[in-house]
Amino acid sequence: MDFTALSETIIKGNMDGAVKETQKALDAGSDPQQILDQGLIAAMDVVGEKFSQGTMFVPQMLRSAKTMQACVALLKPQFQAGTVSSKGKIIMGTVKGDLHDIGKNLVAMMLEGAGFTIVDLGVDVAPEAFVKAVADEAPQILGMSALLSTTMPSMKATIEALKQAGHRDKVKIMIGGAPVTSQFAKEIGADRYAPDAGSAVSEAKGVLAAG
Ligand code: B1M
């Protein structure tokens, strides 16, 4: 199926139209993963390009983001597994100074669908807040997301804060977000890097399999 019409409504920030197009695609039997990748995420890439070119501004970008979130809400039940016992607990958050949460929410949704229990700390999460959550929740994995090159250092700061608090060895750390790379993950001492939500699920399963 062609998702151009869906993408266009998201780029324009036309929420009603986008929700209708998403429902239409679902009703037509399209694969939810394809709707997500080729309709929704592809649209946000265009929004990012337009922003870079100066033909789109923050308010429109926000409108497109809200439109996409409304469509994701429609897809969410399609990604939820049946009643499975929890595979493990994962703390998720977007790092300090960063308000982007669409990718983080998608990763959380896929992990939840794969049977993990998610504790979502939201956006703009300070290193101390991550440390406190690790101490309180004893998760197997701490997941951090960053979309700005200027907020990536906060991932390193969080790892340092965990070390200082004596919690670093109790949790595996997974990082991701558009500007994040596996090289950067190595540099800051993260355990896992995932470029997208699907890989985040494989990496999380890999952590548990490794014991
Ligand atoms: Co912003 N923004 N934004 N923005 N925004 C980007 C990121 C940017 C690339 C746009 C551009 O210039 N082309 C640019 C960053 C440049 C850089 O530093 N490299 C940018 C900028 C500059 C800014 C502001 C500074 C603009 C301003 O105010 N002048 C400002 C910063 C605000 C802040 O955070 N302090 C800002 C604000 C915003 C909005 C609030 C308007 C809105 C966010 C709304 C929201 O999230 N609720 C917004 C949006 C929507 C974008 C773009 C257009 C789309 C981001 C997105 O949702 N993508 C973005 C351009 C782009 O990325 N193409 C842009 C879709 C999402 C599914 O992908 O988040 O990459 P992504 O997640 C993927 C993977 O990265 C991965 O899996 C996800 C699913 O496959 N992943 C993980 C993510 N986290 C993971 C964690 C993991 C594993 C994988 O493990 C734990």
How does the SSE layout of this entry go?
Blueprint lengths: L3 H9 L2 H13 L4 H22 L4 H22 L9 E6 L7 H12 L3 E4 L6 H11 L3 E5 L7 H12 L7 E5 L5 H7 L3 E2 L3 H14 L1
Parallel strand pairs: 1-2, 1-3, 3-4, 4-5
Helix pairs in contact: 1-2, 1-3, 1-4, 2-4, 3-4, 4-5, 5-9, 6-7
This protein binds CO-5-methoxybenzimidazolylcobamide.
What features would you describe in this structure?
With 211 residues, this protein is of the alpha/beta class. The protein folds into 2 domains: 4-80, Orthogonal Bundle (Methyltransferase, Methionine Synthase (B12-binding Domains), Chain A, domain 1); 89-210, Rossmann fold, CATH 3.40.50.280. Helix content is 58%, strand content 10%. The protein has helices at residues 4-12, 15-27, 32-53, 58-79, 102-113, 127-137, 153-164, 182-188, 197-210; strands spanning 89-94, 117-120, 141-145, 172-176, 192-193. It has a 5-stranded parallel beta sheet with strand order 2-1-3-4-5, with helices on both faces. Bound molecules: CO-5-methoxybenzimidazolylcobamide.
